[in-house]
Amino acid sequence: MILKKLKSITWPVALLMAVLAFGLAVPETSFAASMEETDSVHVTLAQASGEEAVNDPLESLNRSIFGFNEGLQDWLLRPIAKFYNANVNLTVRQGISNFLDNLSSPVIFANDLLQGEFERALTTFGRAFINTTIGIVGFADVASEFGIERHDEDFGQTLAVYGMGEGFYLVLPIFGPSSPRDAIGKFVIDSYLDPLGLWLDNTDRQNIEYTLAGAEGLDEYAGIVDELNQVKKTSVDYYAAVRSLYRQKRKTEINNGSILELPPIPDLSYGITPEDFDQPLAGVNPPASQ
Fold first, then answer.
1. Contact at 8 Å (CB) between 257 and 152?
2. Which of 26, 73, 175, 234 is the Cys-Cys partner for 77 at CB 3.0 to 4.6 Å?
3. 88-102 in b/e burial notation, b at 16+ Cβ within 10 A?
4. Distance in angstroms (rounded) separating the CA atoms of residues 156 and 290
5. Angle at the Cα of 118 from the Cα atoms of 99 and 186, rounded to 5 degrees
6. Residue 286: pLDDT above 60?
7. How far apart are CA 240 and CA 174, in angstroms?
8. How sure is the predictor about 47, in pLDDT bands with cuts at 50, 70 and 90?
């Protein structure tokens, strides 16, 4: 739901971003090379360290935007999140989170199909059906109790599966770490795969749309605000740490792999990990090489 209004971005701009994403992808981490090494149907981005792994030509601008985002968090997001956690019952918060997750099912389902992941698409459909009916429109995650676990997919991941490189690192105002590929996929294309969002737009119900977007952002951020505060204290260069963590997080999501043992972060959030993927993470063992 977040950033649905970005669908108004002109297609020439989106096309330019796509060209940049392809052109600036690091050769060593290309889809073709990964496919040769793993014989997998999913994209595998090679782990790297040092300057080759950074690919951050806009670092000066990115750091400025990053500083703005941090200031916004300190001034607004953290106080609101702490108030929400302190004054709203845990059961209620979990129900809201379940409801918002259920609303994202059509986007996940569509990307499952686009990636040829028909088994995962069936899982997504089954979860949505069970939680919408038995789970009272999603407030109760009954599907998980039945052993049907949730997963995330977005069009940025779909583009990666079909060989599109991540391109250069990009920090978005408010929404944080991204790349041209992920910005196009998640914030432009996915809005067209969301039937509820399209209906709200077409029927001039933007007030509901903004309310859902705000609730999604608050729920996501409030769920990890304490962990973020802790990992921020352990970071020497917080910007570089966030950049590395975002790349690892997206790599795992694209590969549908095992969950990395990293601090939990939302798509618009921050965390910490070493720039060298082989180094330990503040008391957490590094992920095994794939």
1. no
2. 73
3. eeeeebebbbbbbbb
4. 21
5. 55
6. no
7. 18
8. very low
Alpha-carbon distance of 241 to 66, in angstroms, equals 12
Strand partners, 127: none
Looking at residue 1, its amino acid is M
Neighbour tally for 145: CB within 10 Å: 11
| String of DSSP letters for 69-82 | HHHHIIIIIHHHHH
| Tokens matching residue 290 | 């794939």
Q: How far is CA 227 from the centre of its chain?
A: 17
Asked if 194 and 107 count as a contact pair (C-beta separation under 8 A), the reply is yes
Alpha helices in the chain (DSSP H): 11-23, 31-38, 59-72, 78-87, 90-103, 105-114, 118-133, 142-145, 155-161, 180-184, 195-202, 206-222, 225-233, 238-255
Tokens representing 199 are 């209906």
Nearest by Cα to 244 from 50, 33, 44: 50
Euclidean distance between CA atoms 98 and 90, whole angstroms: 12
Q: CA–CA separation, 128 vs 122, rounded Å?
A: 10
